[in-house]
Amino acid sequence: MSVEVEDVVVLPPALEEARVHAAEAGWNYAGGVTPPIAWALIQGAQAVLVDVRSGEERKFVGHVPESLHVAWATGTALTRNPRFVRELEARLAKHGGKDAVALLLCRSGKRSALAAEAAAKAGFTHVFNVLEGFEGEIDAHQHRGGSDGWRFHGLPWVQD
User: Fold this and answer.
1) Residues 110/88, Cβ–Cβ less than 8 Å
2) Which of 4, 82, 134, 140 has the largest count of CB atoms under 10 Å?
3) Which pLDDT value is given to residue 146?
4) DSSP secondary-structure letter at 71?
5) Is-above-0.85 flag for pTM?
């Protein structure tokens, strides 16, 4: 996922660029990448994808095959999961724990940004947000997926 040089993790160039942009923007987490960049990193075994949407969203809207799942919020009211950080650490344990290079995905990129902030605050060092999310932003007609998002870019996904 990353290369260690004398206990220093060297990130892929796309993630280093994301980190620089995040610092310039004042974000409280490592940074964000577009869905196509996220997919390339996953395919290159340089990062792991963590879907932070609710279980219901994954089941009824679809999800990325082989993505890990740790809900940021649950239920129809999207109640914040108080165990999110502990569950994230447990799911990432075999990928490097708090030093894992993880890309967080939600519906539009907003909840995953909040989840990335919480992870960074808890000591995760390489957690990035997947900008645009799985479905993308809502448009003027109250629809998603018409101009951005994982599915818009034609990236792999399945539905139960």
Assistant:
1) no
2) 134
3) 80
4) -
5) yes
Q: How many CB atoms lie within 10 A of CB 91?
A: 17
For residue 83, give Cα distances in angstroms to 45, 71, 94, 126, 135.
Answer: 27, 9, 19, 20, 25
Among 4-18, 98-112, 119-133, which stretch is predicted with the lowest mean pLDDT?
A: 4-18
Q: How far is Cα 112 from Cα 75, in angstroms, rounded to an integer?
A: 16
> pLDDT tens digits for 12-46?
999 999 999 999 999 999 999 999 999 999 999 99
Which of the four pLDDT bands, split at 50, 70 and 90, describes residue 5?
very low
Q: What are phi and psi of 123, to 5 degrees?
A: 105, 5
Which amino acid is it at 107? R
To the nearest 10°, the Cα dihedral for 91, 47, 26, 53?
-50
Contact yes or no for 84/71 (Cβ under 8 A): yes
Distances in Å between the alpha carbon of 153 and those of 41, 68, 83, 90, 160? 15, 20, 32, 30, 20
| CB-based burial label for 122 (10 Å; 0-12, 13-18, 19+) | middle
d(CA 32, CA 103): 8
